[in-house]
């Protein structure tokens, strides 16, 4: 959490703490203070935002239970365990909390957050969570859910999250895309570094950004109905053919680097394409690339093509620049 502007610094009980008065409450930022506890820290009852990122806290201060005005709480990068969070369900005065960040702690399961009926942002990334069980207790008002870099093996207890706009489940052990069909407002889906073999978006068509980088895909098929899609990241898979993207007329970024693609195709009718990443594939020749790119010939600003057989031509960057009038970058070369 980052606060705009410099807060006034004052001494309280021997500890230095940054507080910023805002209309209706106080913002307290203790990031990086290396605190083991908060005994020497004043916690005003009007506290609205509390940032305790990068400390050494292993327990929750019982005074949290009285902070009825608190709507943002970050406990990122501490030493909290499942047991540490056990008091949360009884602290009903915190029910107005809208953002809870527990990223980078020592959790093995999702905490019980049922009292937070207005929760909008929930982050438990970089822990050791093995299951999404318990997520059914989370508020249906949730907008952003982050559970990346854990040990989750199944997408479950997601069906009630009708308002979710961002779902981050990257760097887990997922094999199947499932239980997404009720997320009709979902705009961003991040599933990189899993074990997914097949695309199954369960009818979602409001998506704007999708990442399935570093999975086990062999085909692009499955994105055809995502007509709002602007950014598609599919690098480091086993994809052999460019197909199923011709309907994505709003696509601006297409990342297919580090796959097994031999031919540039199916992007001829993408009028907004700006970034095309095809490096580390098996493309033998650039002959006909202008025609293959078609309607985006004038919109392309960036192409990555290095480490393909066609990139052995010393002048390939110059030739691409001649083909695409608004090109600004080929691989690492800026024009």
TrEMBL record:
Any one GO cellular component localisation term in the record: cytoplasm
Region listing for Disordered, in residue ranges: 1-23
Record protein name field: Protein phosphatase 1 regulatory subunit pprA
InterPro entries assigned: Leu-rich_rpt, Leu-rich_rpt_4, Leu-rich_rpt_typical-subtyp, LRR_dom_sf
Cited Pfam families: LRR_4
Keywords, in A-Z order: Leucine-rich repeat, Repeat
Gene source species: Adiantum capillus-veneris (Maidenhair fern)
Keyword Signal: no
Tagged with keyword Repeat: yes
